[in-house]
Amino acid sequence: MPKALLQLELALGEGVSDLREISDIIKSDVGLTAQFLRLAFQESHRASDRVPSISELVIQIGTGKLRTLLKDTPSVSTFLSSSVSSACERFWMHARLSALIAEELASQTTGVQREDAYLAGLFCHFSSLPMLLGWEMADQETRDLGYLTAELACSWGFPRQLVEVIHGSRHSCGTESRALLDIAAAASTWAYRLEFLAARESGTCSALVSPSRLERG
Prior knowledge:
Elements: H1 2-13, H2 19-27, H3 30-44, H4 54-61, H5 63-72, H6 82-107, H7 114-123, H8 129-132, H9 139-143, H10 145-155, H11 160-167, H12 175-202
Helix pairs in contact: 1-2, 1-5, 2-4, 6-7, 6-12, 7-12, 10-11, 11-12
């Protein structure tokens, strides 16, 4: 989203960069986080099994390469129609809300780290993006978007646990990934409820479209 890119530009333009501020800006935007994880993999050439710490990756990558990433990352509004851009904005907001709720749910359970849960919530509907962005795909691919986007995330160097969350199949998840998937799914459900209540209060319920309608079921 344009706001996240602007915030990151301002944070990187300061004389002394604030690590926490930069990490929080990256994590606030699902697209920016995806691009950042791709960059981290390109720099290390090594995918991780576990969900990484964004702040640790920021230190490893450095502000110079973050500035290059910022320069090479366009906002969705620059290449999408206004209607699709609005749908993307709703998707981004839902991802962010799901992530925050997942983080809170993790604080009430044992065995799941808060940041791990946050990133799982952020990416739990990642398989909806190809349809949302209007990618041209064969019928077979649209029937299994979870597998398609999981393979894409794997090729980008996403950690295995996040790849399994994106795939969305509990049967193919390891124990830790299954716990993340369950928290992310619960968080997404709560996010939809809150969005529905907010939309009902503002009279815009018809504008809400669940990404689950775009998924493989």
